[in-house]
Amino acid sequence: MSINFEKNGLIAHIKNSSISYILEVIDDKYLINRYFGKTIREYRETNTFQYFKRGYNTQHISSIEHLSFDDFPFEYPARGHGDYRIPAISITPSTGIDFIDLTFKEWRILKEKPKISGLPSTFSEEGETETLEIICEDVSSGIRVYMYYSIFDNLGIIVRHQKIENFGIQKVTINSAKSLSLELPAKDYDFLSLYGTHAKEANVSRFALHRGIQKIESARGASSPQHQPFFALLSPDTCEESGEVYGFHLIYSGSFSAEVEKDQFGNVRAQMGLNPDNFKWSLESGEIFETPEVVINYSNNGLNGMSQNFHKLYKSHLIPKKIMNQERPILLNSWESMYYDVTLDKIEQQSNIAQELGIELFVLDDGWFRLSNSSKTSMGDWKCNEKKLPGGINKVAEIIHKKGLKFGLWFEPEMISKASNLYSEHPEWALQIPNYPMIEGRNQYVLDLSRKDVQEYIINIFHEYLKDGKIEYIKWDMNRPLTEVNSLELDFGRKSEIWHRYVLGLYYVLETIISTYPNVLFEGCSSGGARFDPGMLYYTPQIWTSDNTDAFDRTIIQSGYSLLYPPIAMGAHVSITPNHQTGRITSMNTRYQVARLFNLGYELDLSKCQDYEIKEIAEQIAESKRNKKLIQYGDFFRHDVQNDNYSMWSTVNSDKTEAIVIIFQKFHNPIKSHCLFKLNYLNSDFDYCEKNTGKIYGGDELMSVGLSIPLIKSDFHAFAFHFEKIS
Ligand code: GLA
Predict the structure, then answer these.
(1) Residue of 377, 410, 414 to mutate, ligand 1, most atoms within 8 A of C-beta
(2) How many independent structural domains does the chain possess?
(3) Collapsing DSSP states into helix, strand and coil, what is residue 647?
């Protein structure tokens, strides 16, 4: 990894063994992007920028003949002086005119990766990253922009963010400040993103990039299941196992937008950041604003190459180290077995069986604090309903701990029920717009997390529950998008800041709680995956992937999220059949095979399971415990398969001596095709024993010829293989 200045300090070349990112200062003023992609040993300007005389165009005042901004690959473009494409930054200074002119001032190398104040970001230890700091400014407007690019050793990743400083004497307004703006050369790309809805998250959308602007966004106050804050630009022939990919992922949990413009010449500008529709920020003299961090990923090893970069980055540089170094517990969650109707008897009964099965953590989900068995009351009060649970949460914790299990509890801290003591005492704590009705979502309002008193209230609730160490896990839920997004407390001139201030407030609360209780395991949730993003992952090392626990749907949802997230970050539970969300019937084995390479849990009424099912679950848990290291620290791959009636995953350890491979058959087809499944991520020089059958195969044969599977007359069938190197 290195950052070098070349051409008398006019070119900066950021590189490691996988990627190069090259910037140039033109005409002593303008910062442009020259290249991003596979590593270049030494950059000698084969792609010299060509200036053309064109009609219906503007010529910039410059010593360079025909310098036009119409196709100039600006690194952080603004509008108004001849670049008509999507701008990265828009600021209204004291002139009242949305116009700034940023020019390059200086750059330098930082050995330590800078932190972003109030926002989650990737971290690194000494020697793991180098950072390029670039300063651009507009002296007339008093605006200085600091741009940070950090490169990691051996990863095809650069992370980037901006810091905007008002060094003038008057207040300015930031209308938009993207985290990413990247110019890519004119060629054909596919645009890939993840879209969805509640209980059907992370579907892959892929289409050929066309002229004009393509955009995805969330304007819901949370990153949302509708669009993940991610997109990728791929060569049209890129597949899971080969091809070029540029991937972008925003470390942020609120509204975002991502846009790609293919311009008149076919050049491509890719941007992502805070959603300008939900954002404006007043910057007083001397103040600083920081954008969220964006992850920029390049691979020429297909979508799996991109995923490996993201997974490695998040495992080593985003998820809290302390939690990442511990094996995650296999849990039993009460939701689908009890819903709101939680009782001590049920808890006693379920945890007895859980103990026999070897389950390690019992999670008491919603219901424990509700006055009725519904979502209508009590949110915000967080007082245990002792009519349901005599002796309160302490008693429940005692029952669970006596069985040798850890105890976890569900909260939805950002919400308030109209029918709550908290709302009677503090109606002003909810987001609201005077003289307009307040809209409920799942019978609840949203607390104004920008307020200090609200932040302290939530923090104190957690102190109350966590201080004596009886709770080892918290599920942090958030079950509705934001409406009436206004804080009664915020000054008139700052009203548009509330969307971002809400997220900053959330991060402050999480940071305070998590740093006080670093041993507590937090699982994020938002009606499943409605706020599954790298911002939350920084605080909650595992996230409940989807409220849809159906095994077949989960093969799609988990595949989608696995483009970005390591499987250990994704909660995957074996639930009852017929499935509560889809009514689909799948075998216990299929439900387990779909969940086992992820963060395994169970969410079903164990007392209703037949003896043979209990036996099967006990075997699953024993097997999963034996394979915990492989699953938590191994590399996860999706495979290209010849026939879309199948999908295939594998988890392989780093030295490729062990792998679990799972093949899913969607539907039984009586006219069976001869499908072969190649295990492309083994070592061709090794011989492997398949542990279930004892058969021995060469890695080369598994990789080049591929496995065939028997005819099984069953829909939704899963085939599992476990290979171990023989010496
Ligand atoms: C959300 C979560 C579920 C469960 C319920 C409880 O829907 O996604 O897992 O916790 O809330 O109300």
Answers:
(1) 410
(2) 2
(3) strand
- In ligand 1, the atom with minimum distance to the C-alpha of 375 is 12
Active site residue 71: no
What atom in ligand 1 is closest to the CA of residue 442?
A: 12
Which tens digits make up the pLDDT trace of 674-727? 899 999 999 999 999 999 999 999 999 999 999 999 989 999 999 999 999 998
> In whole angstroms, what is the distance from residue 590 CA to residue 576 CA?
12
CA distance 39 to 16: 7
d(CA 125, ligand 1 centre) in Å: 36
Position 59 confidence tier, pLDDT thresholds 50, 70, 90: confident
From 320, 344, 366, the end of a domain falls on 320
Q: What CA–CA distance (Å, rounded) separates 677 from 461?
A: 52
How many CA atoms are closer than 13 Å to the CA of 172, on its beta-carbon side? 30
Known catalytic residue at 547: yes
Domain of 644, CATH number, reads 2.60.40.1180
Indicate which CATH number applies to the domain containing 282: 2.70.98.60
Instruction: Tell me if residue 281 falls in helix, strand or coil.
Output: strand
Considering the domain boundaries, does residue 128 fall inside one? yes
Of 278, 301, 320, the last residue of a domain is 320
Q: One of 547, 550, 553, 635 is an active-site residue; which one?
A: 547
Alpha helix (H) ranges present in 111-152?
A: none
Residue 619 forms part of a structural domain: no
> Which two three-digit tokens encode residue 618?
């006990």
The verdict on pTM exceeding 0.70 is yes
Summarize the confidence of residues 410-426 as an average pLDDT: 98
DSSP codes of every residue in 560-608: HHHTTS-GGGEEEEEE-SS-TTT-----HHHHHHHHHTSEEEEES-GGG
Mind listing the pLDDT tens digit for each residue in 158-167?
999 999 999 9
Is residue 230 situated within a structural domain?
yes
Q: In a 10 Å sphere around its CB, with 0-12 CB exposed, 13-18 middle and 19+ buried, how is residue 713 labelled?
A: exposed
Ligand 1 centroid–CA 549 distance in Å is 12
Give the span between the Cα atoms of 723 and 700, in whole angstroms: 13
* pLDDT surpassing 80 at residue 662: yes
pLDDT of 660 above 90: yes
Q: Looking at residue 671, what is its pLDDT?
A: 79
Domain residues for the domain of 110 are 92-320
In-domain check, residue 543: no
Contact between 246 and 184 (Cβ < 8 Å):
yes
Whose C-alpha lies nearest to ligand 1, atom 6?
A: 366
Confidence grade of residue 654 (pLDDT, cut at 50, 70, 90): very high
